[in-house]
Amino acid sequence: MRGTHVTNGTNSWRAGLQRGGIELRHLLRNGKEMSGNLTNVAVALLVAAYVSDDVPGTRTPMTHLVLAGFAAYLLFQVGLINLPQILVTEREEGALLRLRATPGGIPAYLIAKCLLMVALAVGTLALLLIAGALLVDGPLPHGPGDWLTLLWVTALGLLAVIPLGAAVGAVLPNPREALALIMLPTMGLLLTSGTVFPITALPVPVQQVAAVFPLKWMAQGLRSALLPDSARTAEAAGSWELPMVALVLTAWAVLGFLLAVPLLRRAARRESGSRLATRQRKATQSGAPAA
User: Which residues contact 273 (CB under 8 A, 6 or more apart)?
Assistant: First the structure.
């Protein structure tokens, strides 16, 4: 029995990695999907280019704080906006229904999506940092320690938001409503998590609410890697709090993994041929293209 579980787990990983590679190649060939991520990078650079002055109480350019914040937000967006939309769309097209007949289908599906989102997020982050450094004198890590911090904060941040995004995508309604339901809270977090201006400029209760969610800690961790150490005086605690960054992001990662697979399995169990046919008929009647 134990050997069977090990074999199933190995097969799920192998199938997930193969599927993820196929989906990544498809993404790279899809100009429309790639243009959306390029647009996000362009918006971040435009905002940074028009910001002047220094972070209050420091000699760090506000441009650097904004780019570090947008770097965190773009990682956050891949996990909690892009991924849920993809999952909802594929569920409507019958992907989860087909997974019911595939051994290890849900874990392999989730592994594939995680691989795709990690590649997309890392590529977007690299593009933002390189373009920022070349075009608006943006920040880059200064030494091995900063590069290591950038690496582990990015990795742990993605572990925190990608499984959570999968869990969210499993419970959202149709694609037409999904974007509206997830954009408002994510935009609220963008404005309250210290990503576009110092978090100390916000009321203390707002800071406390933002500290519950991963974006605030992702942004703080990336600032520690990209900004000079003197910039920590603009943080709410007067330091980077890297142990707390690691603790909060790990907690969200564990929560996301605990929720994602059961919720996706539940969504798959609820799927049926009649449900899929009904959705396609309604889509046709409303003028939307059928799956």
Answer: 97
Please tell me the distance from the alpha carbon of residue 77 to that of residue 37, in angstroms, as a whole number: 10
Q: Is 54 helix (H, G, I), strand (E, B) or coil?
A: strand
User: What totals of helices (H) and strands (E) does the chain contain, helices first?
Assistant: 12, 0
Which residue has tokens 């890697």?
A: 225
- pLDDT reading at 278 higher than 60: no
SS3 136: coil
Q: Which two tokens stand for residue 169?
A: 């995508």
What would the pLDDT profile of 229-273 be if each residue is shown by its tens digit? 988 888 888 899 999 999 999 999 999 989 988 888 787 777 655
Q: Which among 194, 195, 236, 185 is positioned nearest to 71, based on CA atoms? A: 195
Distance CA 137, CA 134 (A): 6
The residue among 184, 196, 150, 166 whose CA lies nearest residue 91 is: 166
Angstrom distance (rounded) from CA 175 to CA 89 = 6
The count of other CB atoms within 10 Å of the CB of residue 244 is 15
- Backbone φ, ψ for residue 59 (5° rounding): -105, 20
**Tokens (6 digits) for 204:** 């203390």
Q: How far is it, in rounded angstroms, from Cα 48 to Cα 138?
A: 9
How many Cβ atoms from other residues are within 10 Å of residue 182's Cβ? 20
CA 246 to chain centre: 17
Phi, psi of 197, rounded to the nearest 5 degrees: -160, 160
More confident residue, 246 or 277: 246
Spatial CB neighbours of 144, under 8 Å, sequence gap ≥ 6 = none
Q: What is the value of pTM for the model shown? A: 0.85
Q: Quick check: helix, strand or coil at residue 249?
A: helix
Count of CA atoms in the C-beta half-sphere (13 A) of 52: 1
Using alpha carbons, select from 31, 61, 21, 62 the residue that is nearest to residue 195: 62
Structure tokens at 207: 């800071």
